[in-house]
UniProtKB/TrEMBL annotation:
Protein name: Uncharacterized protein
Cell compartments where the protein resides: Endoplasmic reticulum membrane
Domain of life (superkingdom): Eukaryota
Protein's organism: Capsaspora owczarzaki (strain ATCC 30864)
Cellular component GO terms, alphabetical: endoplasmic reticulum membrane
InterPro entries: ER_stress-assoc
C-alpha cells in the first residue's frame, strides 16, 4: 500500500512535465559569436603561421641566399 501512495505522489509531482516535452528553452548565452573556442582558434593560427614561417625558411635555404 505504501508503494502506491508514493507512486501517486510522484505522478502528481511530475504530471506538469508531460506538456513541456519537446519544448526547448532558448540558450541564455547569446554573446558567443565564434563557432569554435579560443583555444582551437589559437592552435589553428599557430599551425598556419608556423607552417608559413617554415616554408619561408626552406625557400631561403634552397635558393642559397
Amino acid at each position: 500500500m505504501a508503494g502506491s501512495a508514493r507512486m501517486k505522489k510522484s505522478n502528481d509531482a511530475f504530471h506538469g512535465n508531460v506538456n513541456k516535452r519537446g519544448i526547448v528553452k532558448p540558450t541564455t548565452r547569446q554573446d558567443d559569436k565564434y563557432p569554435v573556442g579560443p583555444a582551437v582558434l589559437a592552435l589553428f593560427i599557430f599551425v598556419v603561421c608556423g607552417s608559413a614561417i617554415f616554408q619561408i625558411f626552406q625557400t631561403v635555404r634552397s635558393n642559397g641566399v
